[in-house]
Structure formats: structure tokens, C-alpha cells
TrEMBL record:
GO terms for cellular component: sulfite reductase complex (NADPH). One of its GO terms (molecular function) is heme binding. Residues 81-201 form the Nitrite/sulphite reductase 4Fe-4S domain. InterPro entries: NO2/SO3_Rdtase_4Fe4S_dom, NO2/SO3_Rdtase_4Fe4S_prot, NO2/SO3_Rdtase_4Fe4S_sf, NO2/SO3_Rdtase_FeS/sirohaem_BS. This is Nitrite reductase. Pfam families: NIR_SIR. One of its GO terms (biological process) is sulfate assimilation. It comes from Virgibacillus halodenitrificans. It comes from the Bacteria. Keywords: 4Fe-4S, Iron, Iron-sulfur, Metal-binding.
Length: 202
């Protein structure tokens, strides 16, 4: 029997988490009638593909606009709102750039980063490890949200009024610090409690 590897796919960042029929048909080419597709809370689908020709399959997926990411202890693809007020006004290019820079980076434990285009907050940034909220022409950055468990917690503001460049830089630095200083399988929430928000800020 051929070895399979699990990957995560989605349609990339756009107006809502959508997949078109061509993308679905391409995915189904690699599924038998008994196979299942797992829909995760990260706005990703998990699919198992043959390990031996993983690269060609990913290339084929990407040719129809699917984005492919690793599964496991990596930064997940950016969870976003639906950008209902428009691409530019709600900063979709900024969300795409954040995703390009961070998604798939190895970290001690799965890291959830969320983006929301206005203060209504449909992208749930306060319940993610790292959350970005566009406010007027700038960006506010939250850390430490925890959606799961009895000890669920709302994140708190780390920095506000950031330009896109300042935002990219800060998010990348936070992830680099976590990747370097986090203990094996230590969640970002625990890591933040251990080192403290002020140290992270500095
Ligand atoms: S957060 Fe704002 S821009 Fe994004 S979907 Fe909600 S209301 Fe629309």
C-alpha cells in the first residue's frame, strides 16, 4: 500500500472561505469513495495525498488556486473575516502578506493567528493566539486569546496604531521569539504566561 501524507488545503484569503467546483474536483481526484475530508476550525481541509508524488499533487492543487500548508506544529494559515466591506478598505492585501510571511513556520505548538477587517471582529482575533484588527487606517495587535477549554480567555492588546510594515515586523518577531524560546509542545498561551506580555513587547 502506498504511503500517504496529510496536508491542509484551502482556497487562500478572499471574500469568505470558499472553494470553487474546479478546486473541489481537483481535490476529489485524490480521494476514493471511502476517503474522508476533514473540515477543521482553522478554515482548512485536511486531505491525505500519496507521499511519493506529494510535490506534483501540491503543484496541481496550486494550479487551480488552492493553497497548501503543513499539518502539525506550525503556524496555521491566517484565519480571516469575510471582508464584507471591500478588499482595500478592510486590508485584504495586508492579510495576504501576513499569511505569506508566517503560515507554515515551525513552532513549539500549533499557532492560530486571526485577522479581522474592522472592529466588528468577525474573524475572532481576540480568541486567537495572535489577533490583528484593522481600525481605521491602522492595525491593532492582540495576543494571548484562548478559545478552547474551561480556562478560555480573551486576548489583550499588545500594540496599537501599527502601519502594515510595523505589523508584519512585530508579528514575525513574536513568532520568532516563540519558536526559539518556547518549550517543546508548549502552547503560545502558556508561553506568554511564562515569559509575560511586557517581556514579549520588549
Ligand atoms: S470584521 Fe468587519 S469587514 Fe470583516 S466581515 Fe466582519 S463586519 Fe465585515
Amino acid at each position: 500500500m502506498e504511503n500517504k501524507i496529510k496536508i491542509a488545503v484551502n482556497g487562500g484569503i478572499g471574500f469568505g472561505s470558499k472553494l470553487n467546483s474546479k478546486q473541489l474536483m481537483t481535490i476529489s481526484k485524490y480521494m476514493s469513495e471511502e476517503d474522508e475530508l476533514e473540515l477543521t476550525t482553522f478554515q482548512q481541509l485536511y486531505i491525505e495525498i500519496p507521499e511519493d508524488n506529494k510535490d506534483e499533487v501540491i503543484k496541481e492543487f496550486e494550479s487551480v488556486g488552492l493553497k497548501c500548508y503543513p499539518v502539525g506544529n506550525y503556524v496555521k494559515s491566517l484565519r480571516t473575516c469575510n471582508f464584507c466591506k471591500g478588499e482595500e478598505r478592510e486590508g485584504m492585501p495586508v492579510a495576504k502578506e501576513i499569511n505569506r510571511r508566517i503560515a507554515g513556520k515551525p513552532v513549539p505548538f500549533t499557532l492560530k493567528v486571526a485577522y479581522t477587517g474592522c472592529i466588528i471582529g468577525c474573524g475572532e482575533p481576540m480568541l486567537s493566539d495572535i489577533g490583528v484588527m484593522k481600525y481605521k487606517d491602522h492595525y491593532n495587535l492582540y495576543v494571548g486569546g484562548k478559545a478552547k477549554g474551561k480556562d478560555a480567555e480573551v486576548g489583550s492588546l499588545l500594540k496599537e496604531n501599527l502601519t502594515p510594515e510595523e505589523l508584519y515586523d512585530t508579528v514575525e518577531k513574536i513568532i520568532a521569539v516563540y519558536a526559539e524560546m518556547g518549550k517543546k509542545r508548549e502552547t503560545f498561551h502558556k508561553f506568554l504566561k511564562r515569559i509575560g506580555k511586557e517581556q514579549l513587547k520588549s
